[in-house]
Amino acid sequence: LVPDIRELIEVDDVMEDDSLRFGPNGGLVFCMEYFANNFNWLEESLGHVEDDYILFDCPGQIELYTHLPVMKQLVEQLQQWEFRVCGVFLVDSQFMVESFKFISGILAALSAMISLEIPQINIMTKMDLLSKKAKKEIEKYLDPDMYSMIEDSTNILKSKMFKKLTKSICGLIDDYGMVRFLPFDRSDEESMNIVLQHIDFTIQYGEDLEFKEPKEYEEDKSALVDEYFQDHVDE
């Protein structure tokens, strides 16, 4: 059976408690902190079956990954239980089609990477909902040239007041290549397989699998992503 945190605590119950009087965000934070103080419930629910592949569907509120320790505590606890942990950061592709929104998405992903200190796969979801034109436009964001993006972007990124800050942020992203995104299209089986292969590689899923060479992996990744976009352009 799949563990459900609502068996332990529910945010609606917290919000309805007259002594707490939390709103949606405060209630969620309270629930997550309560969860962090009751990891024994999670351990009992998960059990210890060899070669388990477990997906944790985590809340989307960014504050849980930036200035609160709850998710970091969960990661450390799982590692103590000898789980190989990989973060999968999801961003709606419909949100990422403009330069300034793309930079915001990168910073959110980077914040989670720094906070959790685990390998992380960053994914643009809902590619199947984009038009052909939008898919072609968003391809440049998968391997972005941040300096070119500043020149080609709207006046929002060219604000004189924040010019130096914007350039510094874009330089950090471009120079260190710290965040890259994979496209996820649930209507395309190959797209889903690419994402799964990246996650499997990151956690080296399966003790009987041979270690994969990073160079070969990078070449395969680039070829698979290029193939995905070429298929959709030709349609």
Automatic annotation (TrEMBL):
<dbReference type="GO" id="GO:0003924">
    <property type="term" value="F:GTPase activity"/>
</dbReference>
<comment type="similarity">
    <text>Belongs to the GPN-loop GTPase family.</text>
</comment>
<comment type="subunit">
    <text>Binds to RNA polymerase II (RNAPII).</text>
</comment>
<keyword id="KW-0342">GTP-binding</keyword>
<dbReference type="InterPro" id="IPR027417">
    <property type="entry name" value="P-loop_NTPase"/>
</dbReference>
<keyword id="KW-0547">Nucleotide-binding</keyword>
<protein>
    <recommendedName>
        <fullName>GPN-loop GTPase 3</fullName>
    </recommendedName>
</protein>
<comment type="function">
    <text>Small GTPase required for proper localization of RNA polymerase II (RNAPII). May act at an RNAP assembly step prior to nuclear import.</text>
</comment>
<dbReference type="GO" id="GO:0005525">
    <property type="term" value="F:GTP binding"/>
</dbReference>
<dbReference type="Pfam" id="PF03029">
    <property type="entry name" value="ATP_bind_1"/>
</dbReference>
<dbReference type="InterPro" id="IPR030228">
    <property type="entry name" value="Gpn3"/>
</dbReference>
<keyword id="KW-0378">Hydrolase</keyword>
<comment type="function">
    <text>Small GTPase required for proper nuclear import of RNA polymerase II and III (RNAPII and RNAPIII). May act at an RNAP assembly step prior to nuclear import.</text>
</comment>
<dbReference type="InterPro" id="IPR004130">
    <property type="entry name" value="Gpn"/>
</dbReference>
